[in-house]
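From the shared-data thread, chain only:
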Amino acid sequence: MNLSMFNFNKKKKVLSRYEDPTGEFTEREFEMANWWLKHKAGLRHLLIWILSLWSIITIGIGFWVWGDYLFFGYHADEQMADQIVETVTNYSAMHSHYGAAPISFHDSRVFYTGTHKYDFVTNVTNPNKRWIAHVKFHYTFAGGQTAIAEDMLLPGDVRPIAVLGYAGTGHPSSVKFVVDNIRWEHISAHTISNVALFVKSRLQFQVKNVHFAAIGKNGVPTNQISFSITNASVYGYWSVSFFVGLMNGTSRVAVLPLTITQFKNGETRHIDLRSLSPNLSVNTVIVYPIVNIFDPTVFMTPSV
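Structure, as tokens:
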């Protein structure tokens, strides 16, 4: 043991006493070269082990990522692609944002108005904020149909449309409401910024003093409906039409037409209507204006 240490120290001393005759290498450089020669093989094995371990880790991560994509990510990408295609190509979905939404037609009824005449009435809702609807329609029933009628629905309109005074020999059965055509008219935001306010400021008709009397003469019922109506807006109309809904509580029991000419702003008119509908009972009325307020020629004074 001591002999080996003695020999090692002797070799080290011998190396330390070595002098490079060329003068190009120092003692420190000789020691580093000697260390490199002794550990070269071990360092090579260590480098190979590190590179092998790095390869195993990176390849393993790659397999895990691709496996996750194949089992989960691929299907998610397929669903995303389908959604993108639907968003781009589904014109109906786009139309609800950029075009007119469908009009709601519901609660069609037939009222007998006396003397073998009938009124066909349907409630409608135009949900669009910037579209006027020009609707052509008719009714079919067992054994016949009405003539085609046309009506104009303002943006946001909720009111009845009707074919009034159809002459028939019996009460129509199996009645169906048929839309023949709808022509849309768009209101540009550059022309009118707030359509709802525009409509509200012009359609201000107030009803008061409703009176109903059932007067029979010679066995024929004659119903008198009277009320006062005020044009509370600042706009006068050359002519404005209405459907007058005769109400018994919350139920509409009949619809009558009404037209008022040269209806000035702030003016109040007394209205006196007649109906031959049997067994009629009315406690209030609702007026539904029918006038294209987007046509400036309907106003007696210039539209603002």
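The two ends are 118 Å apart (CA to CA).
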